[in-house]
């Protein structure tokens, strides 16, 4: 079938992307789903820094590649082995398929699935195939999803069914922003009642960590970011305090749990500085591969502090997404507030500029 999608043509083109146009929007061919795959009509997709990191070259992937890894949609066709996901089922797509049989999967979310990671790096679906093409030439999949399109074929292990009452704009953000930021809080940070949680970097993932901390625990929540508008938004979300990094240091902020969600070495340095003795620094951002920080090992040993990496929120999507749905349905997790604007697919390059400038929380592409 023919679909409309956004394809990254070349990595590392200069900014502004609205002028250099690294992403082209046009027609592609989509092959039918295999036995363990689903054809999904995309309803909504979010722009995330993991998309931008491919565009700017921080995360090198094979091109051409149909981008987009944070999306939700409705199943329109299921492979012959897919009796558990019926047609018309709304699903959330997740950017790390889990086979469930490798040693990494046995860690209950602590480490990424090895076959899933290999497929993501190769630009294929879990079974090794590519269902996308253009002019007879293959087009790579982005993290098993390729959600910046009207339709997608995905492996069953890349989706989690959700009830029909979860609207697309909420469902789409559950698969990345909430799963990554919120999962980092509940799975890696694990704050206890009476403790303080600091979130450094208040983009989509950071704000998701904020609202999850506020939903789950009787804790004080502090937001840290360089941009005043992000601090204002965090206060409107309900944080108890909001500071720039310098202000946080001047105020002597120290927390039992500090989540770093900016993907920048200076942000991680700030997060470490704000971690109290005995506390956990949880880093979820994806910086450039050559980024480095300088820390004193003595501080970790003498003060009993921990530095924890958390990929996909250390989550098992089939378990954690239903938990977040329950929090949203109860009114304790206002996922809708993470959406800063809605754009069209044709505005994807300028949307990447907005993301790179740091002013957007979550831009959402809505598909009619």
* Weakly predicted, low-confidence segments: none
Query: Which percent range fits the helix content?
Result: 25-40%
- CATH architecture annotation name of the largest domain: Alpha-Beta Complex
Strand content: 25-35%
The third-level CATH topology of the largest domain is Quinone Oxidoreductase, Chain A, domain 1
Q: In CATH's first tier, which class of the largest domain applies?
A: Alpha Beta
Word description of this protein:
With 368 residues, the chain is α/β, with parallel strands linked by helices. It folds into 2 domains: 2-161 and 334-366, Medium-chain alcohol dehydrogenases, catalytic domain (Quinone Oxidoreductase, Chain A, domain 1, Alpha-Beta Complex); 178-311, NAD(P)-binding Rossmann-like Domain (Rossmann fold). It contains 11 helices and 18 strands. The strands form 3 sheets. Strands 3, 5, 6, 9, 10, 17 and 18 form a 7-stranded mixed β-sheet that branches. Helix 4 (168-189) crosses helix 5 (204-216) and helix 4 crosses helix 10 (317-329). The longest helix is centred in the middle third of the chain and has 22 residues, at 168-189. The radius of gyration is 20 Å and the shape is globular. The protein starts with a strand and ends with a strand. The mean pLDDT is 96.
């Amino acid at each position: 079938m023919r679909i409309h999608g956004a394809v990254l043509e070349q990595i590392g083109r200069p900014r502004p992307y609205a002028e250099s146009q690294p992403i082209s929007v046009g027609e592609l061919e989509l092959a039918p789903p295999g036995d363990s795959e689903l054809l999904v009509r995309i309803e909504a997709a979010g722009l995330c820094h993991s998309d931008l990191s491919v565009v700017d070259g921080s995360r090198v992937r094979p091109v051409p590649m149909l981008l987009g890894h944070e999306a939700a949609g409705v199943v329109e066709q299921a492979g012959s082995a897919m009796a558990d996901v019926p047609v018309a089922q709304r699903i959330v797509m997740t950017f790390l398929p889990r086979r469930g049989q490798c040693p990494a999967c046995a860690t209950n979310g602590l480490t990424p699935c090895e076959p899933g990671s290999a497929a993501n790096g190769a630009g294929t679906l879990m079974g090794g195939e590519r269902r996308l093409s253009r002019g007879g030439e293959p087009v790579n999949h982005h993290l098993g999803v390729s959600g910046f399109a009207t339709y997608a074929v995905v492996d069953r292990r890349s989706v989690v069914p959700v009830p029909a009452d979860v609207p697309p704009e909420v469902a789409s953000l559950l698969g990345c922003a909430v799963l990554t930021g919120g999962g980092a809080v509940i799975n890696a940070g694990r704050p206890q009642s009476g403790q303080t949680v600091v979130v450094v970097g208040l983009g989509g993932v950071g704000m998701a960590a904020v609202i999850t901390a506020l939903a789950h625990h009787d804790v004080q929540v502090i937001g840290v970011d360089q941009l005043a508008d992000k601090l204002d938004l965090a206060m409107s979300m309900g944080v108890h305090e909001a500071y720039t990094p310098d202000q946080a240091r001047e105020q002597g902020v120290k927390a039992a749990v500090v989540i770093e969600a900016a993907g920048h070495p200076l942000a991680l340095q700030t997060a470490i500085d704000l971690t109290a003795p005995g506390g956990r620094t949880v880093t979820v951002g994806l910086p450039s591969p050559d980024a480095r920080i300088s820390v004193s090992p003595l501080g970790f040993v003498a003060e009993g502090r921990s530095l924890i990496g958390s990929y996909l929120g250390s989550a098992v999507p089939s378990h954690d997404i239903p938990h977040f749905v329950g929090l949203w349905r109860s009114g304790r997790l206002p996922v809708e507030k993470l959406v800063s604007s809605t754009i069209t697919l044709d505005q994807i390059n300028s949307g990447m500029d907005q993301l790179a400038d740091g002013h957007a929380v979550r831009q959402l592409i809505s598909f009619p």
